[in-house]
């Protein structure tokens, strides 16, 4: 498939509802854009840098995020399915604090869930495990019995 090459610079434009199919879109630069309700299917998103993003209520499936960096992100209520986490590191994962958009004063947040996952060789280091359950067993209580 031969692709026509062109660079587009858009500023202060509304391209909502646009469709991109069979497009090579490497090294794009998005700054201060609204991508809400955007659908991305069968995409290579490797080596991307996502900084200061709101991905809440986002659904991701069959996407290559190899060597992608996500920092300063709101990923609340996000759904991620069929993923490979080999060598993936999660650091400084926190609950919202007062002033954050998703902050709830009584901290009655929906739990974070891992379902049907292979967590072989997973390490949890220096983390608050209050309320952590594995297959319904409260780990805090289990550790007290050791």
Automatic annotation (TrEMBL):
Tell me which InterPro entries the record gives.
5peptide_repeat, Pentapeptide-BTB/POZ_domain
The cross-references to Gene3D superfamilies, in alphabetical order and at most eight, read:
E3 ubiquitin-protein ligase SopA (2.160.20.80)
Write down the superkingdom of origin. Bacteria
Q: Which residues form the signal peptide?
A: none
Q: What is this protein called?
A: Pentapeptide repeat-containing protein
